[in-house]
Structures are given as C-alpha cells and as structure tokens.
Amino acid sequence: MNSPFRLLLVADSDSQLLACEALCQFPKHLKVDVTINAIPRDGTPKSILQRAQELGTLWLFDMGKLLRHPDLHQFDAIGVYLTGSKISDFRLALSLLSKSVRPLLFCGFNGVVLEKFMEGMSWRLGYDLICLNGPRDQHALQQMLIGSPFAEQPTVLTGLRRNSRNGTTLTPHNKRPRQMVFAEQVVMPRDDRDRADMVRILADLARRSPNWEILIKPRIAPNETTFHQAETHISQTVLQSIGQPPSNFRLEYRPLPELLGQSRLMATVSSTAFFDALDFGCKPVVMSDFGMNPANGSHVFAGSGVWRRLDAVEDLNALDQELGQPNPEWLTWMGYGREWKPEQLIISLQKLRTTQQEPFQDKFGYLTNANLSTKQLRRGAERAIEEGNWNEAQTLLKLGSLMRPTHRNIARRLKAVEQKNRLLRRLLLILTYRDVG
C-alpha cells in the first residue's frame, strides 16, 4: 500500500489560513496527510484556527521553532502561505539549514490577485512550484518572465473553486429568502469617505427594497485582526455614516458559506467571495459605484457581466430579476472551471518528486525581492530580541552567520541570545547592540 503524501502548509495570518483551507480539497484516493502550522499572531480568529485543526494536524510554532523542527524534513512538500518578503525568506532559510534531501516547496496566492502581481510574484520565484488561479495569472506571469532566468518557473493551475459541498444539495434560487449578503473587505475601498458612501448606498437600497434583507458580512469581528488593517471597523462606519440603519439592514457575523447557502444575491467590491457565491448557488453582483479603480480591485471584475451601480438599481426585486450569471468566458479566463482544482497540485508535486534529485538551484541577483539580505535577518532578530523570543532570534542570527561568517557583530549577538543566564544575556545584549535601521 502506498504511504500517504505528507503535506505541511505554513500560514501567518487569517487570510493565509483561509487560502490553506481552500486548497485542502483533495480526493481521498490521493491519501494526503495534512499538517497546518499557524504561526502565532494576536487577534487570529479562533474559529479559523478551529477550522484549520479539522483539516488535519495543527501546529502553532513561530518561524524559528518551525525551521528547527526535527520533523520538518519528513514532509514530502511544504506549502508556504506567508505575507510579503517572508515567502522568500522561508525558501532561502530552509536552503541554508537544509539537509541534502529536502521537501518540495510550493506557494501561491490567496484568492484573486487584484494588484501588485509583479511584486507578489517576485517573492515567490525560485519555488519548486507556484500555484496560480487560471489563465489570467499564467499569461501575466509569462509576460513578466520572458527572457529572464526564471522563464521556466514551474506553475500549476489550482482554480478558484474553493468550497467543497461534499454532495450537499443547493437550495433552489426561488426557494431562498429574499436576502442579499454584502462581503465586506477591510481596505477596499480604503478611503473612509468611500467606505461611508458604500454603507449609505447599501442602506438606501435596503430602504427601496422593504421585502428584502441586506446583510453586511464583516471581514473580521471588532476584536480580531487581519493582515490588512483599517482604522475604523465596519460597525463604526455604519454608525457614523447612517446612524440608525433601516430595519432590514444589519451586520451578520455567521460564517460566509452559511450566508451564501441561503441568500439569493451576494454583492462585493472585489472580494474572492464572488467565486464562493457561485459555489453555493448564490448570484454575485459587483458594486461598480466607485468606478474601474485598480486601487479597489474592481478593474479585475469589469468583464464579469455582472458589474452594476447599486445606487442606480431600482430595487432588489428588479436586480434579482434581470441579473444573469457571470460571463462564462471571463470565468474561464479567471480560473473558475472544473478542469482546475487543488488535486492538480498533488499530482504535479508527485511528478516532481520522482524527477527532482538536485538540491536548490537559486538564481541570486535577478530580482531584488528574490534575495534574503543579512540586514533583513538582523532586523528580524532585533525584533525577536525585543519580544523576548530567543529561539526566533537564534535562528535568524544563525542564518545571518551562515551568509556572513566573518561578520563579528552577528556572531556576538548570536552568543548573547544563546546565553541561558538572564543577567549575563542582558549585559551581553547591551554591550553588543548596534543600530541596524
């Protein structure tokens, strides 16, 4: 009997954990044994951690402990879903600490890539495999890498069907309550005035549609945090912009899949929830009231065929009547199709596993974001020292000493954080301190 394919997914925010959850739709015959490491972060919703635990084994190690974990090299593949430069840092850190045989490394994006595709991709280049949503992303990557050392970067299309219903039957559209759910995004639109206008437009639409309910699904609860930060929670925006809302207009914190499964319509500015709505038989509409603005991500959805100004809609009865399904050609271009699914990732990794024998072949120096600098490591170590996270500081300084073996201050700081005696460690840290910017 074939042994299970051991998969480790690493995430450092609620958004990235949701990306891992969406990926874990592997059929049983592939025998995938999933472990998820959620790097501890204040404010991560407990419900998301609980859902991650239901997918397999849940670890809660910080980056330093994870990189030094004795079982790290027992995995067949590691999926890295981190933020910003940490994606590149993890790849290079593992290559410095790695044994001769290492797990395959892959990464991807959480949902639709709305902006800064080039910057996001530059962190990911050099991985064994990069997950993309569909032809749109694949074409953009090919255009970006023509003539570069990364022109042959391996990729796999895993699609935008992110929800497995396990055979459950969808409630027919006409049997659902007259309900529209609005999927709020933390920073789209970012401007406070636009967010206030967004709430007023939805409230006015609720007043024009007294036999409907409009539910705003906040991205996070008031006491939770996400990678993207907004100064004002949507609940405060509602109070400040419209005061007393209409009786058929309210915030709803139940899980989005539950709301989509019972609603007729789903509206958003540019959320990946657009595709989740299709999974649950809910008709999506894109709010075009703020124009075709790349800063809001709305430009990506302009070809969807369901772009509407909600302030110009007569009422939700009229919208529900005339709104059709999204343009099928646009859906295919984006990657929403049955031919692209997460199991393609495992199949591609298994193929790579049988052909790849060489260790990392790093292409240093081509893109700035593709390199891990000693300054990055030193800054990270100093942050860890401030937090009293000695394991993290040791790991980062050890990596720095591997890259710069003759750097005396790195060596001294490493000896300081390795000191077990608290008073002596404190003294050594004072004596060896240098401002690294």
SSE diagram, text form:
Blueprint: E1 5-11, H1 14-23, E2 32-38, H2 46-53, E3 57-59, H3 63-67, E4 77-81, H4 86-97, E5 104-107, H5 117-124, E6 129-132, H6 135-145, E7 155-157, E8 179-183, H7 192-208, E9 213-217, H8 234-242, E10 249-251, H9 256-260, E11 265-268, H10 273-279, E12 283-287, E13 307-308, H11 316-322, H12 328-334, H13 343-355, H14 374-386, H15 390-403, H16 408-418, H17 422-432
Parallel strand pairs: 1-2, 1-4, 2-3, 4-5, 5-6, 6-7, 8-9, 8-11, 9-10, 11-12, 12-13
Can you put this structure into words, describing what you see?
The structure is a single chain. With 437 residues, this protein is of the alpha/beta class. It has three domains: 5-160 and 337-355, 3-Layer(aba) Sandwich (Rossmann fold); 173-327, Glycogen Phosphorylase B (Rossmann fold, 3-Layer(aba) Sandwich), CATH 3.40.50; 373-432, no CATH class. The protein is built from 17 helices and 13 strands. It has helices spanning 14-23, 46-53, 63-67, 86-97, 117-124, 135-145, 192-208, 234-242, 256-260, 273-279, 316-322, 328-334, 343-355, 374-386, 390-403, 408-418, 422-432, and strands spanning 5-11, 32-38, 57-59, 77-81, 104-107, 129-132, 155-157, 179-183, 213-217, 249-251, 265-268, 283-287, 307-308. The strands form two sheets. It has a seven-stranded parallel sheet with strand order 3-2-1-4-5-6-7, sandwiched between helices. α1 (14-23) links the parallel β1 (5-11) and β2. α1 (14-23) packs parallel to α2, α7 (192-208) packs across α8 and α15 runs antiparallel to α16. Mean pLDDT is 85; it is low at 359-371.
